[in-house]
């Protein structure tokens, strides 16, 4: 299986898991085409995801122009994603209620759970702190798997700015 096939399979797994989380929230999640507040400039991805974008959006990268600075280079004039089918992991989970564990500053060796959600998706539904863990996207495991794919196929953890993918096709 090629590198891009591995990352495509990973993305398909992420999409399925994210859909299960999203389904549990119904109308609470307001993300959709044109909702692009989280689509900011300076996003970076691992080379394995950049390669998938290069292959899946070759025409755009060779003939198109990046969007205006400040927003993601891949947004169109209406706030839609021009690489949606091959978008990176981080974009596939945006808007979902997030949870993660981190070291507790007050108690060394102990962990504390943190949660966050896009403010646009926090206007309805139960408070974030009351959601069962399975109704949140838990950070850690998926990112570790992506990091492992990067190490396996690229040998380093170097990251690629999304905006630079346009310049890489020019010449």
Give a quick set of tags describing it.
6 helices, three-stranded mixed beta sheet, 171 residues, alpha+beta, single chain, globular
Q: Could you tell me the strand content as a percent range?
A: 5-15%
How many helices?
Answer: 6
Strand tally is 5
Overall tally of domains:
1
Q: Averaged pLDDT, please?
A: 90
Structural class: alpha+beta
Biggest sheet details:
3 strands, mixed
Distance between the termini: 30 Å
Estimated radius of gyration: 17 Å
- In helices, the fraction of residues equals 25-40%
Overall spatial form:
globular
Unreliable residue runs: none
Order of neighbouring strands in the sheet with most strands: 3-2-4
**SSE pattern:** HEHHHEEEHEH
How would you sum up this structure, described in words?
23% of the residues are buried. The two termini are 30 Å apart. This protein is 35% helix and 12% strand. The protein is α+β, with helices and mostly antiparallel strands. The protein has a 3-stranded mixed β-sheet with strand order 3-2-4, with no helix packed on it. The chain is globular and about 50 Å long. The mean pLDDT is 90. It is built from 6 helices and 5 strands, in the order H-E-H-H-H-E-E-E-H-E-H. The protein has one domain (3-168). Helix 1 packs across helix 2 (47-56) and helix 1 (3-23) runs antiparallel to helix 5 (141-154).
């Amino acid at each position: 299986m090629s590198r891009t096939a591995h990352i495509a399979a990973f993305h398909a797994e992420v999409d399925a898991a994210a859909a299960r989380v999203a389904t549990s929230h119904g109308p609470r999640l307001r993300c959709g085409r044109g909702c692009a507040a989280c689509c900011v400039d300076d996003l970076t991805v691992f080379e394995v995801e950049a390669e998938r974008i290069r292959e899946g959006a070759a025409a755009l990268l060779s003939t198109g122009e990046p969007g205006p600075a400040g927003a993601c280079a891949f947004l169109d004039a209406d706030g839609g994603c021009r690489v949606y089918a091959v978008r990176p992991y981080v974009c596939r989970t945006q808007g979902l209620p997030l949870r993660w564990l981190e070291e507790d500053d007050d108690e060394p060796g102990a962990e504390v759970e943190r949660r966050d959600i896009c403010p646009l998706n926090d206007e309805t539904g139960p408070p974030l702190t009351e959601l069962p863990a399975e109704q949140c996207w838990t950070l850690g495991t998926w990112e570790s798997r992506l990091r492992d794919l990067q190490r396996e196929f690229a040998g380093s953890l170097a990251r690629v700015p999304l905006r630079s993918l346009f310049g890489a096709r020019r010449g």
